[in-house]
Amino acid sequence: MAYFWFKALHIIGVVVWFAGLFYLVRLFIYHVEAEAQPEPAQGILKAQYEIMEKRLYGIITTPGMVVTVTMAIGLLVTQPAWLHDRWLHIKLSLVALLLAYHFFCGRLMGQLAAGTCGWGSKQLRALNEAPTLLLVAIVLLAVFKDSLPTSSTVWFIVGLVVLMAVTIQLYARKRRLDQERLNQEQLDQAKQATAAQTSAAASDVQEPAQL
Ligand code: HEM
Question: Cross-referenced InterPro entries, in alphabetical order (predicted)?
Answer without folding.
Answer: HemJ-like
